[in-house]
Design brief:
Helix content: 25-40%
CATH architecture of the largest domain: 3-Layer(aba) Sandwich
Shape: elongated
Oligomer: single chain
Main location: membrane
Keywords: Antibiotic resistance, ATP-binding, Nucleotide-binding, Transport
Order of helices and strands: EEEHEHEHHHEHEHEEHEEEHEH
Number of strands: 13
Radius of gyration: 23 Å
Structural class: alpha/beta
Number of helices: 10
Subcellular location: Cell membrane
Membrane topology: Peripheral membrane protein
Protein name: ABC-2 type transport system ATP-binding protein
Strand order of the largest sheet: 5-6-7-3-8-9
CATH superfamily of the largest domain: P-loop containing nucleotide triphosphate hydrolases
Number of domains: 2
Bound molecules: adenosine-5'-diphosphate, magnesium ion
Length: 294
């Protein structure tokens, strides 16, 4: 059974359509990135999964149950975009308070270790840096040993060092066969830290696959050459070509099959091809292409 299922889910806020007929299924044990620009519907999707919002249409299921049932059973942990800590409590007290609310929580020491907080256990919550507070919020999210961990832009406000430590903690937690879904608008994070990337734009599914598949599927390569004043007509019909740009006498062909495009360029046209350059688009280019189209 899938850990997470969205079946034709839409969510309106008044006139705003934040999630638009979204269908997807996530297997247990996977770490999945929900990648999209600001306003794409990431937080709305996560709040739907937690039962904090109800879909306008469609259904959301968590291990075959409703989000409310899954939350009640202690199966869900979440780190939301806005969540305050209780300032007067120490890190240890706060975590212990939250873990006791769950039926089968992790041991306090284990949580502190996983969240890299052992040295900060006695520190008051109001004396923590931004990155340290995020680690406490991560600790609270995993306290109940949830099967499904939802992280909404967890590394916002973290410096590079904190990010590295945070992702190491996330991978430790995920390695126990747990399902992790994290929202991000950082391409590198999605690329480096997930088994699968779900790209959403304007509430719709724009792409779904491994980072490598998404790069390939979005016409991930370019072939460019000096066109001079030769005509560009017909370049867009070469095999593999998904788009053509001509600027300052340089033609850039976006292609899903560099070999086929090159062969046709040399054998199938009478163009004088000079200053040939090949490049592999990175995930960023693929992401931009995908979110622009949809
Ligand atoms: P993301 O997390 O990807 O940045 P959100 O899910 O927060 O996106 O928002 C999706 C869309 O819904 C945006 O257009 C946003 O402005 C709108 N939206 C979010 N929350 C509300 C709300 N409470 N009321 C009205 N519109 C909202
Ligand atoms: Mg958000």
């Amino acid at each position: 059974m899938n850990a997470i299922v969205f079946d034709h889910v839409s969510k309106h806020y008044g006139d705003v359509l934040a999630v638009d007929d979204l269908s997807l299924a996530i297997e247990p044990g996977k770490t999945v990135a929900l990648l999209g620009p600001n306003g794409a519907g990431k937080s709305t999707s996560i709040n739907l999964l937690l039962g904090l919002l109800k879909p306008t249409a469609g259904t959301v299921a968590v291990h075959g149950r409703t989000p409310d049932e899954a939350v009640r059973a202690g199966q869900m942990g979440a780190m939301l975009q806005n969540g305050a800590l209780i300032p007067e409590l120490s890190v240890k007290e706060l975590i212990d308070l939250v873990r006791r609310l769950y039926p089968n929580p992790l041991a306090l020491d284990e949580i502190l270790k996983l969240a890299d907080l052992t040295d900060l256990a006695g520190r008051r919550a109001n004396k923590l840096s931004g990155g340290q507070s995020q680690r406490v919020r991560f600790a609270l999210a995993i306290a109940g040993a949830p099967r499904i961990l939802l992280l909404d832009e967890p590394t916002a406000a973290m410096d590079v060092e904190s990010r590295l430590r945070f992702w190491a903690s996330m991978h430790d937690y995920a390695s126990g066969g747990r399902t992790v879904l994290f929202a991000t608008h950082y391409l590198e994070e999605a690329d480096e830290h997930s088994d699968r990337v779900i790209v959403i734009a304007r509430g719709r599914l724009a792409a779904d696959g491994t980072a490598a598949e998404i790069k390939a599927g979005a016409g991930g390569h370019t072939v460019s050459f000096a066109l001079g004043d030769q005509p560009a007509a017909g370049l867009d019909r070469l095999p593999g070509v998904t788009a053509v740009e001509v600027a300052a006498g340089v033609a850039t062909l976006h292609t899903s099959d560099t070999d086929a495009t090159l062969a046709a360029l040399y054998r199938g046209t009478s163009l004088d091809v000079r200053e040939l350059k090949l490049s592999s688009a990175d995930l960023e280019a693929a992401f931009l292409a995908l979110t622009r189209e949809s």
